[in-house]
Amino acid sequence: MAMAGFYRRLLPSPPAIDFASPEGKQLFVEAIQNGTMEGFYRLISYFQTQSEPAYCGLASLSMVLNSLAIDPGRKWKGPWRWFDESMLDCCEPLEKVKAKGISFGKVVCLAHCAGAKVEAYRTNHCNIDDFRKHLVRCSTSDDCHMISSYHRGTFKQTGTGHFSPIGGYHAERDMALILDVARFKYPPHWVPLTLLWEAMDSIDEATGQHRGFMLISRPHTEPGMLYTLSCRHESWLGIAKYLVDDVPLLLKSEDLKDVHALLSVIFSSLPSDFGEFIKWVAEVRRQDDGGKSLSQEEKGRLAVKGEVLKQVQETGLFKHVAEFLYSANSCCKNMPIVSQKDDLPQIAASVCCQGAEILAGKSSSSGGYCCRETCVKCLEATEEKSVTLVSGTVVNGRSEQGLDVLVPSSQTKPSCCGHGPSSCIRMYPAGNDVITALLLALPPKTWSGIKEGKLSQEIASLVSTQNLPVLLQEEVLHLRRQLYLLKRCQENKVEEDLGSPLT
């Protein structure tokens, strides 16, 4: 019996010019000589074919993120951290993308959540001259790459909406090189820039919004090193709404006199499963991969995380949060999600199970993993610093494997509000600093409705990002942008308000 199928498509030419054709090669050589192919070399080094017919947006983004050498912060397979389409699942379920593709706004959201700096433009918020200027900018450097969202029909190609990175520009002929990630269908090809603009200047029927392009670059410092917001858990929809919409209304409606009363209003109305929304990032490795020593890379990452943790604990807001949580847990039992004291072995056991699932290539918990035992110890990172390492044995059916969790920590002297001994102790991320980071990340307008003038001034000083050290400032602003995008997702408005750059 015959089996129906397709083996590639004939590239309609004109209007496109096959990259590997004699004319395409000539365009390539001339563009190199004119210096407008600088971004091509990194892109071509990580060029990939989309693994699913509807994964063009995910393939384009993972290709660009790897080209920019952005660390995903979690492992892909074995000990390797690497962006793959299967890891880009925080803003849209992969099954939904596989069935229906992904929108322009959701790709922007994914790029940001992955740690990139993003400038997104829809064609109804800019013009062709702006597009050409940005294309030249990306083509003459290797630290910025462009992803275009366009309609294939404009090029007489089969299919509709599509994403692909732009690999270069030929100024004299005014042509752009599309590195088509659907390589099973069409090869890389040159197209007239005016025609590419026309293909982008079309309406995505799924969203009713114009298509466009985005510029993706590497941030000056790695954001999201210690804290991240999660939209994997079903509760994130309600929590995002609570933080952005409900908290300002609550603060405006209450007659608050001090910071303790303000925190009480916020925490007493927290949605259930709040603890699933903001996480601190632990690193998991197989014991066979790491042994008893830390690599220079691991030492460097843990040093940065430890410094961020230290900077959080040195803020004035942290002291208020710690005091409130201590008093709340001393006099009532209904705030387990904001406990200022977390059980490290229990947390590590959970992280070990999650790590085992990730290393096994599973994106969600199957419930088949359990951590049989954990052991907490210290490893020397440098002559002055040590890190906390939690070893665990994870069991899944008849198989078991040993995993290590590398925990960021900071040595600090607690205040007199009941943290523990008066001497310096080693502290790892816990409820008090995690919540402090989230409160710092709330939009500034959150606090604008506070009636009491003195309290309003005090809060403004406590939450001001201008007073924060650079590392913590980057961390907080990254969380704030994450919260903004997640809130737009909650409102189904992530496709809007992207006409101006999202930076």
TrEMBL record:
Gene3D superfamilies with a match to the protein in the record: Phytochelatin synthase, N-terminal domain (3.90.70.30)
Keyword Acyltransferase: yes
InterPro entries: Papain-like_cys_pep_sf (IPR038765), PCS-like (IPR040409), PCS_N (IPR007719), PCS_N_sf (IPR038156), Phytochelatin_synthase_C (IPR015407)
Keywords for the protein's UniProt record, in alphabetical order: Acyltransferase, Cadmium, Metal-binding, Transferase
Broad class of enzyme this protein falls into: transferase
Coiled-coil portions: none
Molecular function via GO: glutathione gamma-glutamylcysteinyltransferase activity; metal ion binding
The Peptidase C83 domain, residue ranges: 1-221
EC number: 2.3.2.15
The keyword Transferase is annotated on this UniProt entry: yes
GO biological process, one term: cellular detoxification of cadmium ion
Purpose of the protein: Involved in the synthesis of phytochelatins (PC) and homophytochelatins (hPC), the heavy-metal-binding peptides of plants.
Descriptive protein name: glutathione gamma-glutamylcysteinyltransferase
Taxonomic source organism: Jatropha curcas (Barbados nut)
